[in-house]
Design brief:
Strand order of the largest sheet: 3-2-4-1-5
Shape: elongated
Strand content: 15-25%
Distance between the termini: 77 Å
Oligomer: single chain
Order of helices and strands: EHEHEHEHEHEHEHEEE
Largest sheet: 5 strands, parallel
């Protein structure tokens, strides 16, 4: 009798979110840099449109990381349209699955940190919905707001300070409601609300306690603070912008003291 043996099933590749920090190549972690030195992995990176270069790719090019033989952009449009986003995530997932099924690891390059307001989570979930066998990994990175605080010599939080990290898209009313409960407000994606935010800061007496940072760590980083903020009224700012507001008016409630003290 003739016996037949089936060919071994090739191992599946892994999808790895590689966090690059907010813009300064010096903030790429050793773990991320090790991934960028690999010659057996494929690079992918997000772009907002076919006419917009990838900021994540720009970071690694300025870091002078060696480009792999195969690298490709994946389109993630800037929209709140759920159907358009779902279609974009599906197209991106189907693209990387071809390589993953061939046993190749795919690196997805992400500015900032891949677990903080990043596209990697959407891509990973969509890929695993198509094939639950695919393993994913996240290489942690430096967030834009921690890098911004470091660049400005500004503590993000001290002792028992409270922090809120809020996309400005929730609107001025939401930010105003949060203010009494937090010592520091980090407002992300402030571009659409710049004029309204500056007016609110003036009304609340917070201009002197606010920092605006644009493209932190990039060669064209810009910081505007305090009474200079009204100069931004009516001007164009980058999508990669944030505000850090220190609230001097917060009244703290009763705190439990000695909760870590051993009896």
């Amino acid at each position: 009798m003739n016996s037949t043996t089936s060919a071994p099933t090739p191992a599946l590749g892994r999808l790895i979110g590689v966090s690059l920090g907010p813009g300064d190549p010096g903030l790429i972690t050793r773990a991320a840099w090790a991934q960028l030195q690999r010659t057996d992995a494929i690079w992918t990176y997000p772009t907002r449109s076919t006419k917009t270069p990838s900021y994540a790719l720009d970071i690694v090019l300025r870091a002078q990381a060696p480009l792999p033989a195969l690298h490709q952009s994946l389109l993630f449009p800037m929209t709140h349209d759920g159907d358009k986003l779902a279609r974009a995530w599906l197209r991106a997932a189907e693209t990387v699955l071809l390589w993953l099924h061939a046993g190749q690891d795919v690196l997805f390059l992400v500015e900032g940190d891949a677990s903080t307001y990043a596209t990697f989570g959407h891509l990973a979930r969509t890929v695993q919905a198509l094939d639950e066998r695919i393993g994913t990994e996240v290489i942690a990175g430096v967030n834009s707001f921690t890098a911004a605080c470091a660049a400005r010599g500004l503590p993000l939080a001290e002792q028992d300070d409270t922090i809120a990290i809020v996309p400005a898209a929730y609107g001025i009313d939401a930010v105003d409601r949060l203010l009494p409960d937090f010592d520091t407000l980090v407002l992300m994606k402030v571009k659409p609300l710049m004029d309204a935010l500056i007016a609110w800061l003036e009304q609340r007496g917070l201009l002197a306690h606010t920092q605006f940072i644009e493209r932190v760590g990039a060669p064209d980083e810009r910081c505007v603070a305090g009474v200079d903020l009204p100069a931004l009224l009516g001007t164009k700012v980058s999508y990669l912008s944030l505000m850090i507001i220190k609230n001097p008016h917060r009244i703290r409630g009763e705190r439990i003291k000695g909760c870590l003290k051993k009896s």
